[in-house]
Amino acid sequence: MNGTPLEIPGFYYDSTRNRYFRIASQGISTPSANAYTRERLNQNYSLKRNSSEDDEKQSISKKHHRKLLPGINKYLFNRQLSGTHGNFMSAGLLGQRGRKIKFSPSLQGISLQKIHWVPGLDKYLFSSNRGDLFISSLYSANDSNLYDSSVSSNNQMMAQEVNVARLGLSPSPITSISSNFDTSLFWTTLGSQSTESKAHMCNFNVSQNSPENYTQVSLRSMKTPHCSEFIKGTGFAIGGSNRIAVLNEEGVFRRNFHSKGDVFTLKAIDQNTLAAGCRNKSVLMYDLRGPSKTICQFSHDTSVCSTSLVDSAEPKLLVSGLVSSIALYDLRFVRHDSKVNHLMSYKGHSNLVERNLALMCNEKGTIFGAAGDDSHIRFWRIDSSEVIADFKPDVGGNHVLYRDGTWLKSNDTEGWLLPIDDCVHFYES
Questions:
Q1: Residue range 275-288: average pLDDT?
Q2: On the chain, which terminus has fewer CB atoms closer than 10 Å, C or N?
Q3: Please, what is the Cα angle at 232 between 355 and 214, to 5 degrees?
Q4: What is the pLDDT of residue 182?
Q5: CATH architecture, domain defined by 82-428
């Protein structure tokens, strides 16, 4: 540059390098400002000269390892999990083996099947093999019902007794339970030679502690309803033999979605997207606003038995299948008819023949539990596929199964609730 350089406010001219640099503001020190001071320039020059030999060595090493990527967990899970394992242990899950909840009046001789937590009521619904529908809470009004007579040196479960109320009795087995997470309750029943499969709805009156406005809808087009799911702003979806039926919250039929196989599990990804897990190993994705066909799909290793949503903001889906197969899929990368690889697989699960077994993820999307056909309930860390707990319930040596389960959060207490025989087991997180 010939002559006197121009004066630009906030910049100075370096004649040796023939360019302008930003002047650091007085009294304010920022990384961007420091980078342009004369002192910083001289310091950087010295550092570059001293580290030139190290850079050459590192460049040789990078050529051999450029294909190696950083840990995938760093990119998949944008959350802090430090301390989760320790909190998990100190909360009693690993130390006390959970809590056995018995009911008053006694349900002896009844086998419990399905269970669903209703946050708006701070209660849970559960069904029996006889068609009963019960409702109860996590704690009884009388704390003296919590007793430790069954706690012994062999680390058995602490026992608790709570009151239970029966909402009704169905002549047919109850196949699924759901709710709008408030006071609207929903369940489906299996048809027989003389009756059709049906969907049932009612509102729960909190002040009177009883159901009201009962409605039932015939599912003529669906021989066997396997599952149900609430979709905010839409209503209830029912999955069954070769189709999905959608009802609004008043029980009025809205539409059908066809599938190529029996639908064993449904999961609402958001208000407009529904995921369906099928017998034919497929996970089908439906847009509830569009035509009655899939917008995309992907295949699991085996028949899909259960699903659980891990993160609704960046949706990831846990999929449990037969032959001990549990995997995590990122739904953001699912395209129509494209091959999708799972992000994680989880070892240690056992399920060779059973279809209805519990799969539950906690609210934070950090830990999930799955029941096996070997009578065990296991818990994994989602981000590392690490098994952090493995329990077998003490039921007198009998072979029992957790056929369903639910995650709950009641006041300051949260954990997993699973029906077994005539009681419920609670594992606190």
A1: 92
A2: N
A3: 80
A4: 93
A5: 7 Propeller (2.130)
pLDDT in tens, 192-230: 888 899 999 999 999 888 899 999 999 988 889 999 999
Output the six-digit token pair for 185.
């309750």
Alpha-carbon Rg for the chain in angstroms: 29
Tokens of 332: 């953001």
Number of Cβ atoms within 10 Å of the Cβ of 77: 20
The residues, ordered by sequence, that sit 6+ positions from 401 with a Cβ below 8 Å of its Cβ are 354, 357, 371, 373, 375, 420
Structure tokens at 259: 């599938």
Q: How far apart are CA 86 and CA 98, in angstroms?
A: 16
Pairing of strands 123-128, 112-118: antiparallel
Cα–Cα distance, 160 to 155 (Å, whole number): 16
Which residue ranges does the chain devote to CATH 2.130.10.10? Answer: 82-428
Q: Tell me, what's the pLDDT at 37?
A: 43
Q: Which two tokens stand for residue 210?
A: 């009883």
Residue 7 token pair: 């004066």
pLDDT at 71: 37
CA angle 265, 266, 269 (to 5 degrees): 140
Residues 274 and 261 sit within 8 Å (Cβ to Cβ)? no
Q: Is the peptide bond before 105 cis (omega within 30 degrees of 0)?
A: yes
Six token digits for residue 139? 């704690």
- Rounded Cα distance between 134 and 156, Å, is 26
- Show the tokens assigned to 129: 């093999």
Q: Which of 198, 209, 165, 204 is nearest to 184 (CA)?
A: 204
Contact 190, 131 (CB under 8 A): no
Q: What is the mean pLDDT of residues 251-261?
A: 89
Q: Which helix (H) or strand (E) holds 423?
A: strand 423-428
